[in-house]
């Protein structure tokens, strides 16, 4: 059982009367909201600690949430729209994506709420009655978080309002900094944070500190930042070299290692704290802390388990159960993902370990009418019999007819029936309809560090080194005995291979839209591989619309909307 501390909520009136809550871990302090705290509370030892914990809470608004998922995986080359759900404008790139969409406003405001908490802790640290060592450590954490929040903002919206001091009173004086100014602030914060953060790797942190920023987390983030900056308007000639240097440091200096089995990375419970996880966002299974307000306690829980599932629960022999999860069918994989990215299933285990392919009957019966499998009219199922199987390739009618269950082949996929991503399924939920999930969100893991390194090396013309980095990830993904067959030669390493490898390894992990933007081929690849979005996607969609509330609250129309919105 994972040990985690759940940080108390508290209210600082000086922080524009916003309620902040800390990042979850799991052991557990009592939960209560303390209101009407004086402006100097943050200067006390407990107030300073509460404020530093509270700064982590905005992570939950983005990672593991419907908001963050919508803005990172919808409308890409690997995921398209399922049958149901909201915010389809992010899939279709149509007029539903506009400056009035509530999740755009929510993400924007929560990121700035987190930034303001960081600013408060940093500015008030000199007056806090805590040791100099504690001040230095917490300020370093705040700089990591502030940089992280600004990195999300600049990727999604471009140049935004740059605030590096605490905002105590409401103001209409805002404006847009350049991307170069935002990236300078991000890299300055992270480079400063690295100096003072602990060298402890995540899995070795104490129960009270698990989930806090570390030196390796800051280096991983900085590697990702430089990789992204290299294709932005703020690019510099040494960005790729710096990305590679920081990635190499994470790999070499902290004791991280890839787990032997790809599937075990996503094991729920104690498996979430492991030698591959560099930084994670914490959630809890305590139902008392799961509330429907993103700023409180556990937020809304990690909800990614809801969105990738097909509609298994209305099929013959099936009904909804906790293990199968609650299928919102919001995202379904594109043909490109299932048939090109995951084409090799002989050597590479990741297709089998990424997608759920078998459903066992939990609602048995005789002479059940089939639904999608036209190779048979009826079937008889006993409890625990296979009811649905997805082979991932076409089967002949005769092959399907020989099976006593329905076989879902690619030609029969629909917006409601498709391979289900199983990384985030959450069988620990207390009942069938419960939405908040308790899985930690694995924000940074070592496999991505190797992928960052490979991309940065390829961009420097170092194909031999890039192949070596990719092969570390690919050998881990191999079926037993297929490790050599999974290895790439330097001649095989190009950007298409990098793009596919990131999709194979990171499908669904809230990176793809930002990857496509970084590569400068969002429009091209969506048009090629995502028929639902191809008609509407255009260059303006490399940025999101600025929330109308931000524009309306700025004096003298000083906050300009992104072009095309």
UniProtKB/TrEMBL annotation:
Location relative to the cell: Cell outer membrane
Positions of the RagB/SusD domain: 308-565
Domain SusD-like N-terminal: 83-227
Keyword Membrane attached: yes
One cellular component (GO) term of this entry: cell outer membrane
A Pfam family per the record: SusD_RagB
Residues in the signal sequence: 1-26
Lineage top rank: taxon: Bacteria
Location (main, coarse): membrane
UniProt entry keywords in alphabetical sequence: Cell outer membrane, Membrane, Signal
Region entry Disordered, spans: 546-565
InterPro entries with a match to the protein in the record: SusD-like_N, SusD_RagB_dom, TPR-like_helical_dom_sf
The keyword Signal appears for this protein: yes
Record family assignment: Belongs to the SusD family.
Protein name per its UniProtKB record: RagB/SusD family nutrient uptake outer membrane protein
Organism: Spirosoma aureum
